[in-house]
Amino acid sequence: MQIYNLQNEKLIALDEKPFKLEREIQSIFENNLQQVMGLSIVCSEFTIKNKRIDTLAYDSNTNAFIIIEYKRDKNSSVFDQGITYLNLMLTNKAEFVHELSNQQKSFKHKDEIDWSQSRVVFVSTSFNDNQIQASDFKDFAIELWEVKRFDKETILINPIKKSRTAESIKVLAQQNKQLKQITDEVIVYTEADHLSGVDENIVELYEKYRNAIINLADNFEVSPQKYYVAFKTTKNIVGIEIQKKSLKIGIGAKMGMLDDSRQIMRDVRQIGHRVYGDYQIQVEDDNDLEYIMSLVRQVLLK
Fold it and tell me: Does one domain contain both 266 and 282?
């Protein structure tokens, strides 16, 4: 992809400035982890069982660990390495939780972590076809992110999405004991999982809200979580919990940030809730769809 700088209505092509060291990429991500991935850093260069993890991160929305590895070698196997790191995490849970407890300065027990939401992220300037195809399973907890640097300190970061025809990893897992142990514990949720067994009217209602949300911005990512479907840009914007007869919609904003003139959103700060944000509404129809989208736009513009 060619990147341009607009000067006096003329497009000036920016030349790519390759990274010389993996450490340069690591520094960019670790210093901007919340903005880029919505994660907090637990530890840089975390060593366990003679293995070194480049970045150990934590996702407060899913209450899970994320391992991030930075690659300049285009020929290494992300599939095998991803399995190795997931297995390392799941067989050494106490050590990972101990590191998080030290970072947060508060004790956590391993049972407090949602290990089913664990994942491994590989970051590289590019991936070859074999690496992309090897990770292209819709329910495999491995992600690929490309990063490139151009003139004028311009950085391009692009998560590689799974293909629409991506198959399930479960068939392959039946032939690999270690992989099966991982896929039995680590679950990658899909929209189909959330819509299974739901009334057709609610499925249709979800589709209306889903389409309205993603039409608000070109860079929305639909990211199904354990309890809800998240809609993200560079930050968490909306979460929808699909119930049998309604939708619970949470907007990712702190109380007081939204101008809710009709006061239809509920303050859930003091109430147990699964979807992020202080604002929530339960809907059974699309009567307030346009107004709710106007509230979502406020978050997008902040």
Answer: yes
